[in-house]
Each structure stands twice: as C-alpha cells, then as structure tokens.
Design goal:
Length: about 350
C-alpha cells in the first residue's frame, strides 16, 4: 500500500491552502480556520492568487512586465477593460455525467482501502461518490476547493479518510442525521451520508463558493442514490458559520452526528458542534495522532468546554485500518452529547478568540 504523502496543505480555503492533518494534532499552532473565520469569513479571497493573475496577464500580452504604475495609459499592457472578463468564463458543470470518467487508479485505491477497513459500498453509494469526485476534479481546476489534485490523492486522503471509520461511527449509535461543519469540498460529509447511510444531512461551510460546490455535488449525489434507493436522503448545503447555525432554534439539538475534519481544535469543534447535536448523539473530529503527546494535550484542554456545553469526556477512537490504508495516526475524537447545551454556547467568534479555552 502506498504511503501517505506529506499531509500538509491539502485543504484549500478562501485564505489559501490550509494545513490540514499536518496541523491536525494542534490546530492552535498556527491560527486555525475557526478562530479566524469571524474576521476572514466576510471577504473571499480571489480564486486565482494575484501573483498568478499578474503572470497570466503578462503571458497573455507576451510581456514579462507586470507593472502598471500611475501612468498606466503609457503602459505597453492593454487597459484592464480590454482583458477577458473572468465572469465570462464557461459555467462550471452541474452534471457529472457530462464529465470524463475517473481513471482506474481512483477506484483501485478506494476499493483496496475499503477492503482493508471492511467497509462495503452499495452500488448507488459508489455511483454517488464517483459523481462527487468527478465534479470536484472539474471545479477544482477553476475554484480552489482542495489542494489535493490527483485522483489517487483524493481517493486516499479524502474518500478513504472519510470512510475507514464507518464502523466506529455506527458503533456510536444512530447516525440517521448528519451535519458536517466546514465541509469544504464535501469531506467527510458527502461520502459518509451515502455510506452510513444518513437520511438527512447538512454540509456547512462559511465560504460561499464552497457551499455552492457542495450544493451542486449534493444534488448529483441525491440523483445517483435515487436510482436505486427507495427514499434518497435530504441533503442541504449551507453557506453559514457553524456558530451562527448553532444559535438557530431549528438547528439546535437536531443532529445525531456532527462531524468536522481540519476545522479546529477539539475544544473549538466541541463548542461549535455540541449545541447542534441532539442528546445521545455525538460530535466527531477527525484527528492525527503524531505520537508526540500533542493530541492528548489537545483532548485534555477540551474537557472543560465539553462539560460546559453539555458533552461527556472526549474519547479517542483508534481506527485499526488507518495504518494499513496508508493513513497512519488518523483517528477520531468523539464527544457524546449528554445534557442540553446552555444558550450561551457557542460563544461569538470574538469571545472565543479572546478565550479559546474556558478558564
Ligand atoms: N472538512 C474539509 C476537509 O477536511 O477536506 C475542509 C477542511 S478546510 C481546512 C476548513 C473548512 O472549514 C474551510 O472550508 C472553511 O471555510 C471552513 N470553516 C472554518 N471555520 C468555519 C466555521 N466557523 N463555520 C463554517 N465553516 C467553517
């Protein structure tokens, strides 16, 4: 089995690539997406970084010069208005059936890993995942959804990483409704909805363009499941911050399983996730145990907020198949929702930034 490539920077965000499992054991290390969303979430960065856009402009004009300066009328470069308008580009595909099939390596990698993890995919679930990934590959060439580009990387680090824990999640109890916080390109949420399966799901991301992709992918997934399943799931994509959602009465305490991968520390995910979780349900974070004690410290630091927000002790679930499928150290942290969450949680982003851990 191939080993895992360096697990840094595979999740693109509006802020550029975010380190993911490289920073999973301690998202606090370098400022995490959750903590900064309050400030950054309002403005989306350009999809194409400014430097590459400038380079592209220079190339289009056969010029190596990128400067406009004040006397831009005298610049050899054409005026901005004569450049092609990016909004004129072809619309992004909304149907996976018009896209090329996935190369064989994708399903070879997924199938080998699922075999190791003893997870079986129903034919309609397979079709749904196929459509999700075809759309992701197409959209990712235009919109920065994930820093992982090859079908093999997506197979292992996104699809398998989402699915090798299916048995562990089933053992936690009911998972008929699932909400994925910071779903990004749809992981782990979408593959889980179709495999568990869940009857109702919400994929939440604060960045509009990601939520738009999630909506398109979810529609394709539902269509694929409808081919065979008696009742396809209801999947909603929400362009919202989890902290805002957690204050909405119709969302509070209404999800069996709340998942989050590469979104924040255990404490942060607990504070965002527990208000949304129904009693007896679970918040589950995808984490990397790099063996240096960092994850254990992160779990210990989360105890206070878990308790305050109505949760039990955070528990590490070791995934027996992780190493065998080339994802060594990948594990889950599960927090059971035991009591009603007091209204004050989740706290507003600014307050959480000031005091990430309760004192
Ligand atoms: N879960 C996906 C994965 O593992 O591939 C994406 C991970 S990416 C590093 C983090 C995502 O969480 C980004 O898409 C970001 O927009 C989103 N995010 C961060 N804080 C959030 C919040 N408070 N509410 C909703 N989405 C959030």
């Amino acid at each position: 089995m191939a080993t895992l490539p360096a697990l840094h920077h595979w999740c693109a965000s509006g802020d550029g690539a975010q380190s993911e499992y490289g920073n999973l054991a301690g998202f606090g290390d370098r400022g995490d997406p959750i903590g900064q969303t309050g400030r950054r979430g309002k403005t989306e960065r350009p999809v194409v970084p400014e430097t590459s856009r400038r380079r592209e402009r220079g190339q289009r004009n056969g010029s190596g010069s990128f400067g406009h300066g004040r006397n831009s009328d005298r610049s050899p470069l054409p005026r901005r208005s004569s450049l092609p308008d990016p909004s004129n580009r072809a619309p992004l595909p909304e149907s996976a059936t018009e896209l090329p099939p996935l190369p064989a390596i994708f399903w070879q990698t997924v199938d080998a890993g699922l075999h190791e993890a003893d997870v079986t995919l129903a034919p309609e679930a397979r079709l749904a995942i196929d459509r999700h990934v075809r759309l992701l590959l197409a959209w990712n060439t235009v919109i920065n959804l994930t820093a992982l580009r090859t079908p093999e990387q997506i197979a292992r680090n996104h699809v398998l990483d989402s699915l090798i824990c299916v048995d562990a999640l089933r053992d936690l109890g009911s998972a008929s409704s699932l909400l994925d916080i910071g779903s990004g390109a749809g992981f782990p949420g979408l593959p889980l909805v179709v495999t568990l399966p869940a009857a109702r799901a919400a994929l939440v991301d604060s960045i509009g363009k990601k939520a738009r992709f999630l909506g398109v992918a979810a529609a394709q997934v539902v269509e694929a499941l409808a081919i065979d399943a008696l009742e396809p799931p209801n999947i909603t994509a929400l362009a919202e911050r989890a902290e805002d959602l957690g204050q909405q009465p119709n969302q509070r305490a209404s999800w069996d399983l709340v998942t989050a991968r590469a979104v924040g520390t255990v404490a942060e995910v607990a504070e965002l996730g527990l208000p949304l979780t129904s009693r007896g349900g679970h918040v589950v974070c995808w984490k990397l145990d790099s063996g240096d004690g960092g994850l254990q410290r992160e779990i210990a630091a989360a105890r206070r907020i878990c308790q305050a927000a109505g949760g039990g002790e955070p528990r590490m679930l070791i995934l027996a198949a992780a190493e065998r499928v080339g994802l060594p150290g990948h594990c889950l942290i599960a927090i059971e929702k035991r009591r009603e969450t007091p209204d004050r949680y989740p706290r507003p982003a600014a307050e959480r930034r000031r005091a990430p851990l309760l004192s």
